[in-house]
Design brief:
Helix content is 31%, strand content 34%. It is an alpha/beta fold. The longest helix has 14 residues.
Length: 190
C-alpha cells in the first residue's frame, strides 16, 4: 500500500536492526485517514472470502482492524493480552511470547463470541516471528473456527514470521514489507 510505505519511510524510526518505531501514525498517535485507507485496502483484498469476523490483538491492531471491520460490515473481536480477574470463565487462553518486548503474556478470547461457523480474518500491525498470529490461530482453532487469512500492516520480511505461517497453510497479505532495518536505515521490498 503506497501511502503506508511512504509513511514508514518518511516518519518511521529505525532504532536498530529489529525495532521500527511507528508511534507517530500507527500505535501511539493514530492517523485516522491512514487507518481508513488501510481498512479499505484489507477489505478489498479479502472480499468474497466468506469472512464472518475480524480478529486482532490489543492494542496496536485495534485501529486498522476496526476500520477493516467497518468497511466489511463485520464484527471485530479483540484478543486480550491479560485475562480478566473477574471474568475468566469460558475463555480460550494461550501463552504468547513477544519478540519485541522479550516477554510472554496470556492471550484470551471469550468463548461465547466465536463458534465453529466463523471464518475469520486476523489483522495485526507487525509480523516478525509470527508468534502473535500463531497465538491468535491457536485460540481460533480452540473455537473450531477457521482462518481466512492474515492481514499485516508492516512485515519484517527478514524475520521468519511469514514462512512460519505459510508453512502452516495460512495466507499472509502484508501492506508493507521491510527487507532491512538498521539504525536510521529502512529498506522496503516489493
Amino acid at each position: 500500500m503506497k501511502l503506508l510505505e511512504e509513511k514508514v519511510l518518511k516518519e518511521g524510526i529505525a532504532v536498530n536492526e529489529n525495532i521500527l518505531k511507528v508511534d507517530g501514525f500507527i500505535n501511539h498517535q493514530i492517523d485516522p485517514e491512514l487507518m481508513k485507507m488501510i481498512g479499505e485496502d484489507f477489505a478489498e483484498h479479502f472480499k468474497n472470502q466468506g469472512i464472518t469476523k475480524i480478529i486482532t490483538i490489543e492494542s496496536s491492531g485495534i485501529a486498522p482492524a476496526l476500520m477493516t471491520a467497518y468497511t466489511m460490515n463485520l464484527p471485530l473481536l479483540i484478543l486480550k493480552k491479560s485475562p480478566s480477574k473477574v471474568l475468566n470463565e469460558n475463555m480460550y487462553q494461550t501463552i504468547v511470547t513477544s519478540y519485541t518486548k522479550g516477554s510472554s503474556y496470556e492471550l484470551t478470547l471469550a468463548s461465547h463470541l466465536i463458534n465453529a461457523q466463523d471464518h475469520v480474518l486476523i489483522i495485526d500491525d507487525f509480523l516478525a516471528n509470527g508468534e502473535a498470529a500463531t497465538g491468535a490461530i491457536r485460540l481460533i482453532r480452540k473455537a473450531h473456527a477457521t482462518v481466512a487469512g492474515i492481514g499485516i500492516l508492516i512485515e519484517k520480511s527478514f524475520q521468519p514470521g511469514r514462512a512460519k505461517l505459510e508453512e502452516q497453510g495460512f495466507y499472509v497479505y502484508s501492506q508493507v514489507r521491510v527487507s532491512k532495518l538498521g539504525a536510521g536505515i529502512i529498506e522496503l521490498t516489493s
